[in-house]
Amino acid sequence: MTGLREKQKAARTRRILEAAAQLFRQVGYGAVHIEDIARAAEVSVGTFYNYFETKGDLLLAIVSMEVEEVLDFGKTLLADPPPEVRQALSRLIGGYYDHSLVYLSKEMWRTAMAITIEAPATRFSTRFTELDNMLTDQVCALLAELQRRGDIRPDIDPRALGEVIFNNLNAMFIEFVKDEAMTLPDLNERVARQNAPLAALILR
């Protein structure tokens, strides 16, 4: 019985998240009210507040859903990375970027980032930071695996370099969400170009 309740709760949470994501993308985060989300998700407003305290919490939960799926992609790639360092980095980072607009618009990303800065101690802001750290860990793990395979020089610190690469891809993603005209191919091309000299320097 407990298992059934948990499945029902998870399904209801997913329904709320997907309804909210669609509304935020269609009419803008600021124009959507809790009542609109509850109606679209076919739940009462009271039920909504059993799951999320604020609209900001809901937005950050959508971000979490997005990043968790990206992490699953990264796990698959880490199990069998491409044979060349530059290609491996491009595949991992490109996978992060290419999934970034599945549930969120650029406006939603900007709002979510602002919320985490303005209220860093909330439960969902803390989760946002945790997910960011998990993405950093994946980049570092990819470099460690390439080093283990003998593709990267043994004197390179994969943790330190992975943090540098992630900090750059994160900064470039911020530039991407700030610029409505920048496309995902533009973003991928710029970051791949920036990573190319790094890849050349660390080759064994």
Distance between the termini: 56 Å
Radius of gyration from the alpha-carbon trace, in angstroms: 19 Å
What's the level 1 CATH class of the largest domain? Mainly Alpha
Give the domain tally.
2
Please tally the β strands and state the result.
0
Briefly note the CATH topology name of the largest domain. Answer: Tetracycline Repressor, domain 2
- Elements, N to C (H/E): HHHHHHHHH
Number of helices: 9
Report the β-strand fraction as a percent range. under 5%
Helix amount: over 70%
CATH-defined architecture of the largest domain? Orthogonal Bundle
Structural class: mainly alpha
Biggest pleated-sheet summary: none
